[in-house]
Every structure is written in structure tokens, then in C-alpha cells.
Amino acid sequence: MMDYLPIFLNVKGKLCLVVGGGEVAARKAGVLLDAGAKVRVVAPQIKDSLSAQPGVESIVACFDALHLEGITLVIAATDDRSVNQQVSEQAHTRNIPVNVVDDPELCSFIMPAILDRSPLMVAFSSGGASPVLTRMMRGMLESMIPQNYSRLAAFAERFRQQVKQRVTNPAKRRIFWENALEGVVAEKVLTGDENSAEAMLKKMLEDEDNIQRGEVYLVGAGPGDPDLLTFRALRLMQKADVVVYDNLVSKPIVEMARRDAERIFVGKKRADHTLRQEEINELLVRLAKEGKRVLRLKGGDPFIFGRGGEEIETLAAEGIPFQVVPGITAASGVASYAGIPLTHRDYAQSCMFVTGHLKDGTMNLDWAALARPRQTVVVYMGLHGLDTLCAQLVAHGMPETTPIAIVQQGTTRNQRVFTGTLKTLPGIAEREQPQAPTLIIIGGVVTLREKLQWFHPQGDE
Ligand code: SAH
């Protein structure tokens, strides 16, 4: 749920009211003037620098409801809360949007922080939760969006109609613009050589028929925490026309895909396959053939128990271009967030990833190899076979005191870690009923958690 609806308001030539005559009021009036508004300032005392600004109408007086006559928007910036409150009430009664500086309760709208690359504009806000965080965010945005993006946006705007007339298919047009704005054309604009940029763009328009067709990005989304995405994953998520995802991909991650991208859920839960694997393969092919950029988002890494190999096999057979983007696999993300190093000089020199998926009620694993000492075994999809797993390992010589952990929904806010031994953990799991997805980690390294978990941001028992 959003606390506010972000919008950009056109106040050009509109009369806006600023109540207050000091430094803060001056700053707010400045923003309004920058956006083309006419500003009426009301206060018993008004700084000269404020009243002298062109476009400002000063009224040296105490605030009165009459001052709201003909007003489009109000900002109260006095240091007197009772005055601010009065402004807020009067504005609310008249349905005039009102902002009271540093007093969200009295506001009907809040002012975002702004990164101005006009015509490109970024407005952002923490909804008053943390000004420091907002400032940090500004730093990030400043570095991501160079100053001369203004120029790039203006360039794009200049050719918008022309391109629209020439490239009529919207999906194709988006690709056209992405090619232009991510490639050499953009470089030319950013270095100030708009003539060359224009020539290149026109050349691209002539070759319009050759605009590339659909492709598929097979992208690993990591184990859950969106912070564990790779830059490349994020970039492709922003490019995709369609997102095909399953239930291992966390909701916040799916939401990070391009806002207007179509989202198709093909979730696979145990025994409740929404779409069969062959159907998913066919879907990817069909979408790409329609000329779309298809993002196949998979939990963890696509090539680790992800059937990614099968999906691209079909694509390759159909001659559809694809790229594969690795992700942090559950074993490594989950282990790290649970404070369990997968290898450690004193406990484990190797680490094995196996699937504990039951086939016809049994697990087909090389038990003797798994039961060897001084290694870590990570079991994906193993919860339902936990009893079998523990019993078989003990039967093949692993001490029943061997530490073992189940990590539920690792790296997410719902992460929980259950630890025990091969002997005790099945009982613990029976009692605690861990929620899917769960990962099982077996070996001496599990005991390190007691020392190391403290340093990790995720709190759990
Ligand atoms: N390709 C994925 C694995 C898919 S198999 C990867 O590389 O991680 C699905 C299994 O992964 C689940 O049954 C569970 O064992 C494990 N898994 C995936 N995400 C997990 C998470 N956040 N916490 C615990 N286990 C997870």
C-alpha cells in the first residue's frame, strides 16, 4: 500500500499561496516559481529577498482565510503551529491542496525531494519516515542520472512524433528508442554532438524494418531479498515487455520489473503445477516470436535445480536469441543470511548441492558419498523427505549427532532457522512446521551459526 499518490502538478500561471516570510518560506516559494507558478506570500514580516522576486505578490499581514481566494495550492511555512493549523483547516474546508512544512498531519500533500533533469524529473520521498535516507537516495540518483540527461530527454522529445509516425508498432517503437537511448546516439547527444546524433537516428529510422525481434532473458532472481539481484538482472528487468515468473520469485522482485510489463505467473508448487514445463517452454517461444522481450525470472540461479537448461534448449532449437543471467543460488544466499559458512577450514573442505525431491516416495541419492565426513551437504526441495534423508545418512555411517539446519524462506523477512541433529531435527520440523521454501544444510558448519549469526542483519530464533 502506498501512503501517497505521487503526481506531477501543472501550476504554470496559477496562483499559489505561501504563508510565512522567512527562509523556509522563501525556499518553498522558489520551487513554486521554478515550476512557473505565481506566488502570493502572506506574513507579518517578509524577507526582502523573497518579496523582491519577480512573480511574487507580497501581503504584509497575518494570515486570513480571504487570502485563499483564487488559490490553487497552499504551503504553510511559519514557525507558529497554530497559524499553520489554521491554514491547514481553511484549505481543507475549501479542498485546496495544502502542505505544512515538517508537519505531515496537517498536510493533504507532501513535497517530494526533486532531482531536476528537465524535462526528465525524479521526485522521491520517504513519506517523512527518514530524511537521511532520502538524502542518501538523492546521492544514488545523482550518480545514476548524469546532469546532461536533460539534453538526452530533450533530444528524444524532439524526435518523438517523427519516430511515432514512422515506427507504428508500439513494441517495436520501444525497442527502437531503447536502441537509440542506450547506444551510440545517446553517447553523441551526451557529448554535445547533436548533429551526428540526429544523422544516426535518421539512419536508424530508414532501417526500421531491421529492428531486432523478440528475445528471451533467462534471469536468476536470487533467493528472495531484492538486494541480492545483480545489476544485469535489474537492467533486463527494466527492458522486458513480459515477465514470466514462478512462485519462488518474491513479490518485491516481480514488482521491480518494468511497470507496464505484462506479468505471467506460471508458478510451480509441489504437485500443483500451474503450467507444465513443456507449456512454459512453448510459452516463451510464442512470446518471443511475437517480437517481445521476454524475461523469464527464476528463483535463485537458473542453472541450479532450475530447469533453465531445458528452457533454453527449446529456444535454441527455435533459433530465438537468449541470454542467461546467473543469480545467487539458495544455498549461498540462505547460508550467508543464516550465518552458516558452507565451507570452513576446520569443518568442511567441500560442499555438495543435491535435490531431495522424492520420486515415487523415495530419494535417489548417492548416500555413501553424502555421508562422508568433512563436507557440507545442502539439500534443495528436501523437507518432505527429511525423515528418509536423516535415516539414510545415519544408516550410511554419518554420526546421528551431526548438526543439521532447516532454513525457511531464507534472506526474506520470514526467514527462520531450525537447528538440531540428524536424530532430533525430524521431530523439531514436525512440531514447528517450517514454511516453504526450505533449504536443508548438513554438517559441522551449522554449529558456527551460534558464533556468526549475531553479525547478521536478519533476526530470527
Ligand atoms: N534455482 C533455484 C532452486 C530451485 S529448486 C536456486 O538456485 O536457488 C527450489 C528449492 O530451492 C526449494 O525447494 C528450496 O529448497 C530452495 N530455495 C529456494 N529459495 C529458497 C529460500 N529463499 N529459502 C530456502 N530455500 C530456498
Write the layout of secondary structure elements.
Blueprint: E1 15-19, H1 23-34, E2 38-43, H2 48-51, E3 56-60, E4 73-76, H3 81-93, E5 98-100, E6 113-117, E7 120-124, H4 131-144, H5 149-166, H6 170-182, H7 184-190, H8 194-206, E8 215-220, H9 231-239, E9 242-245, H10 251-254, E10 262-265, E11 268-269, E12 272-273, H11 277-289, E13 293-298, H12 308-318, E14 322-325, H13 330-337, E15 350-355, H14 367-370, E16 375-380, H15 386-395, E17 403-408, E18 416-421, H16 425-432, E19 438-442, H17 449-452
Helix pairs in contact: 5-6, 6-7, 7-8, 11-12
Walk me through what this model shows.
This protein has 461 residues and is α/β, with parallel strands linked by helices. It folds into 4 domains: 15-111, Rossmann fold, CATH 3.40.50; 149-210; 215-328, 3-Layer(aba) Sandwich (Cobalt-precorrin-4 Transmethylase, domain 1), CATH 3.40.1010.10; 331-452, Tetrapyrrole methylase, C-terminal domain (Methyltransferase, Cobalt-precorrin-4 Transmethylase, Domain 2, 2-Layer Sandwich), CATH 3.30.950.10. Helix content is 36%, strand content 20%. The chain has a 5-stranded parallel sheet, sandwiched between helices. The chain is globular, with a radius of gyration of 29 Å. The mean pLDDT is 91. It binds S-adenosyl-L-homocysteine. S-adenosyl-L-homocysteine (SAH) is lined by residues 223-224, 248, 298-301, 304-306, 329-330, 334, 380-381, 407, 409-411, 437-439.
